[in-house]
Amino acid sequence: MSVFAMGLVLWTIRFLLARVSEVDVAYMSLQELIFNMYRSLVVQSNRLPTVNWPLRLVIAAWYLYCYYIYALYSGTLTAVLAIPAYERPLDTLSEVLEATKQGLIPVVIKESSVHYMFQAATSGIYYDLGQHITGDMNYVDDPPSGITKVLKGQGNVAYIDARLSSEIQMMLQGREQFYMGRQSFFPQGYGIVCPSGAGYKEHFDIVLEHMVEAGLVEKWKTDEILTLNRRRHSSPSTTEIVRKGPGAITITHLQGAFFIYVIGGGLALLVLMIERVVLMVGRHSGGEQQKKEG
Questions:
Q1: Continuous segment of H or E residues that includes residue 258
Q2: Which of 228, 259, 279, 294 is most deeply buried (CB count within 10 A of its CB)?
Q3: CB 214 within 8 A of CB 202
Q4: Assessment of whether the complete model's pTM goes beyond 0.70
């Protein structure tokens, strides 16, 4: 709508200037002015006049492709600029340790592997942070209690646990209410326990390796978290407003632009073939007509 409106405005201005001004204004039709506005929108400064429909279709598809790509990247930039700023985000253990000086309470599950890691350390950041994890206020019994304590702490509590477990609990209690630190530490591994000497162990290793390399495990994890999110927000007891944050561009978002370009190229090829067939039929009919007249 804006492209057509601006084309009409430019045509009106050109018309008025040609009437009231002595300046020689180059004539441009309304169609040309509208098309120039469209070229500006898709950041295409080249002017490609053509009367052939196959080439017109190719150019139209290319301009739509440029428009989608340009709009997608601009939209992502706008979304990034619109991300709300968090107060005092904690992304690393060093920042958590520094925040304890301001009254932050680090919380872990009591007698868990994470708790043992901090208590068994004899030096370094684990030891320094472990000195602040000694009282009952630093312990919870399970992940849901840890996430709940973060909410009740109103910004004065940091829960430290496995990333996947924390993501699930945050999703169940409202992902928009939490901030997940970017740093990952003390990675955990999972496996399948087999009897000693089991003949199928090697086959398990191969299959599991293929699943991990193909990204299936990560996809399943993401799908399950999204399923939990849908269940939570579709529950009749859920009354809060769901706030979805901006996401990064993936190939799924970009594929529409390529579909447009392929469709345009396919239509151009089809029209070209039709033109060639019509031309050949016309030549053949003309030749037959000349023979009859001769």
A1: helix 251-293
A2: 228
A3: no
A4: no
